Amino acid sequence: MKKLLKKIYLKSTNKSLPYSLNSVKIDCQVLSLDEPTATISFDDQSPVYDVDRNIDYGIINGVLDNYLDELLNKNVAITSFVIPKFNINGFEDNQFMLKKHKLWYSKLNKLQSNKFEVAIHGLAHYQNKTPFQNHCEFAFISNNDFEIKLKKSIELFQEIGFNPKGFRQPGWDFSTDISLDTFSKSGLDYIAGSSLDAGLNSTNLNMDKIFPCKINNLINMPQNIELKWDFDKMTNEIDRIVSLNGLVSIKAHFADNKVVNSLDKDNRIKLFEIVDYINDKHNIQWKTFKDILKIV
Q1: Is pLDDT above 60 for 282?
Q2: Which CATH superfamily, name and number, covers 2-22+30-295?
Q3: Residues 2-48: pLDDT tens digits?
Q4: By CB atoms within 10 Å of each CB, which of 67, 71, 99, 256 scores lowest?
C-alpha cells in the first residue's frame, strides 16, 4: 500500500520513478576474474560527529578512525565512499564541507597508497524534494539535475587533490531518468551500484552478484557479503564465491551504531574474524575497486 501511494504521488507530481518502483532492464556483460579476489567497501566515512543520533562516522582519533588503521594492518583493501557535502541530518545546507577538514582528508590521501581508495557517495546524501526516501539523493531527479550534482561532487574532491574513479549512490535508488552513460562521460570508470536486492538489482537481477559487469563503458562492482549475517552464513557464501573465482565484496556503513550493516562493536569484531578467515583459509588477493578494474 505504501509503495502504491508513493507511485501515485510521484506520477501526480511528474517526478521520475526510482528503480525500485519501475522495472528497468539493463543489458550488461559479465566479466570474469582469473582468480578469486576480496574487497571491503564503506559508505559515509566522515570527520563530523552526528550529535543528534550519537554516531561516530570516523572522526579523527575516534573509535572508527583507530579501527580503520587496525583493519588496514591486516593487508586488506578498502574503498571508502565519501560524501563531499554531507547533510548529516537531512536538510541543513553546508553542514559539512569536506574541504574544511584538512587534517582528516589529508590522512585519507596518505592512506591511498596503502590499498585504500576514496570514491564518491553522492553530493550531500539527502534530498528534500519528496516526502519519501529522503536518504536517497538521486531517486527522484532528472538526468540533467543528476549531471549537475555529479559534476559538483567531482569538483569538490578535485579541489582537495583527489581524483575519484568510482561512485555508489546513497540509499541505493536511482531515478529511472538517469542515464548510466553520465558516469563515463564525467570521467568515472565504475559504479558500485548493486547489492543483492537493491540498486541496479532492485526489480530484476540485472547485475551479477559475484562478478563485475560491463554496461557500455562503465563497470559495475557487486556487493554480496553483509555484516548483519551470522558468521556461518558469511563464511559459507565466501567459500562459494571463492570456488567460482568470484569477487568477495563486503560492504558496511562507516558508522559505529544505528545504521544497517554499521560497524558497531559486534560487527567490528565480526569483520576482523571474517578477514582472518579469508586470509587463513583462502589466502586470496585483496584489491580496491579501482585496482579490480586492472584485472577484468
Answers
A1: yes
A2: Glycoside hydrolase/deacetylase (3.20.20.370)
A3: 455 455 555 555 566 665 555 566 778 999 999 999 999 999 998 88
A4: 99
Which string of DSSP letters, residue by residue, matches 107-162? HHHHHTTSSEEEEE--SSS---SSSS-TT-TTSS--HHHHHHHHHHHHHHHHHTT-
Q: What is the CA radius of gyration of the chain?
A: 18
Q: Are 130 and 90 in contact (CB under 8 A)?
A: no
3-state secondary structure of 11: helix
**Phi, psi torsion values for 70, nearest 5 degrees:** -65, -40
Residue with grid cell 528503480, as numbered in its chain? 19
Q: Are 142 and 175 in contact (CB under 8 A)?
A: yes
**Hey, where are the domains in the chain?**
2-22+30-295
| Cα(290)–Cα(219) distance, integer angstroms | 10
State how far the Cα of 271 lies from the Cα of 212, in Å rounded to an integer.
23
108 and 82 Cβ atoms separated by less than 8 Å? yes
Q: Where are the beta strands (DSSP E) in the chain?
A: 29-30, 37-43, 78-82, 116-120, 166-167, 190-194, 213-215, 218-222, 225-226, 247-253, 285-286
